[in-house]
Fold:
Amino acid sequence: MEYMATACSHYDVDRFGAGLPRFSPRQADVLFVVGTISHKMAPVLKRIYEQMADPKWVVAFGVCTCTGGFYDNYATVMGIDTIIPVDVYIPGCPPRPEMVLDGLMKLQNKIQHQRTTGERAAPEPRPEILER
Amino acid sequence: MNTTSLIEAVRKHFPQAVSASHTFRGDATVILRPEFLLEVARFLKEDSGMRMSYLMDLTAVDYSAFGKRPTPAFFASSGVAVSPSSEIPDENPWPGPPGEARFAVVYHFFSVAHKHRLRLVIPVNEAAPEVDSLASLWPAANWLEREVWDMFGIRFRGHPGLKRILMYEGFEGHPLRNDYPVKKRQPLIGPVN
Structure:
């Protein structure tokens, strides 16, 4: 829903080149993981990520995908970076469309940096405060 | 039919099935003995005065922590088992959990034709948590009973395929029971935290 708000005409994600969501991982470059991921869904997410062709990037959209959000329970994955490497984290519940566009611009800068220097930055390790 | 006449109709047809009944603010509740569930449900569905064609909800309650949890310091009016203030007149107070059974399966019926509702409550013991399935009468009961099995561990006799619906197949335990720790994760892949 928040992605739809960003993609429609008020905030228009198409001007960033991200206007075509494709529902097949084979044709995609960026994976936006929007919304809470449960433990039942986690293997499916990993499979979708592995089906994407390189080069690929992952954006964790919303605080449930970043750290688990306020769901500290039996069903929720506490951050999808425990399963797949994430490039940009967009927190918020839900994130404002301006935050989404800011995250998209950060991703664009990151990709630009990759092309000019030829190396991919390693995913940052989780801070110790989140390790339990 | 208003709430009292609904309860009277059920009591008249099944005098030995009803163990208690209660109305509160327009909601009629009937507490049944478990062996009469199928007959009463069929009567509710097919009787022309009842015509309860819509099973709105099928859920369960775990009373094992009833009255034992302390009320939270914040939002005191939303705590567990908080009784309302005695100054509020209540001519029909809630009678409390039905009996000593740990669980109660709660059914909400609605009649689209007559626009009346009824709630059925079936007390279920922890030792033999089994209830008859209503999936033969209402197709919606299929998934609702699967959810109750998944979350509480109450089996339904005669259900065409009782398996987990919200959690995955290898999950151990029944999460909405009061003795399942909320934060106990059983991840399929990835670390526990």
Summary: The domain at 2-120 of chain A is CATH 3.40.50.12280 (Rossmann fold).
